[in-house]
Amino acid sequence: MEAGPILGLLVLVTQYAYGQNSELQDRLASVQSLNCRFSAVVTSSWADDTPSVSVADSDLEANFSNIDIAQGTADADSRFGVSYIVVRHTPDYLHLIQMIDIGSIYITTVLPKMTQDGRMMAIHVRNRFAASSYPEFRERPQTFIGECEVGGP
User: Fold this and answer.
1) pLDDT tens readout for residues 98-142
2) Does pTM surpass 0.85?
3) Do 28 and 151 form a contact (C-beta atoms < 8 A)?
4) CA angle 57, 107, 30 (to 5 degrees)
5) CB 126, CB 148: distance < 8 Å
6) Cα 146 from Cα 115, distance rounded (Å)
7) So where are the chain's domains?
8) What are the pLDDT digits (tens) for 53-88?
9) Are 127 and 17 in contact (CB under 8 A)?
């Protein structure tokens, strides 16, 4: 089989896929606020010095306002108040990076992919660790999966 028809088909499929995604990429590039909900979480830990994970349902919410992609800034609205966020955007990702005063780092990544509810797919990662004999004060690395409602102009 000749390479010409295969190459042509590949270009056509790529252009079609890009066309489907370009509207979502443009929407993500002009985002001004996000209201995110994460319904599943993977928590990592060490059990007797052996890495382990657990999966559970989640009801975590994360809200971001005053998103300014050109300036690379945003505000995170949480039960602890508003905190400063560093924003980085590429065509396929919107990253919101938050360094917590105690040393933890949170990263929320929004993808230009739609969920069934018309929101965009999102991942929220919390890199933190605090050893404690009290379960309610333990902090472990976590990855949350969910979706964000995108607000814009």
Assistant:
1) 987 777 889 999 999 999 888 999 999 998 777 765 565 567 889
2) no
3) no
4) 105
5) no
6) 9
7) 3-151
8) 889 999 999 999 999 999 999 998 766 556 778 999
9) no
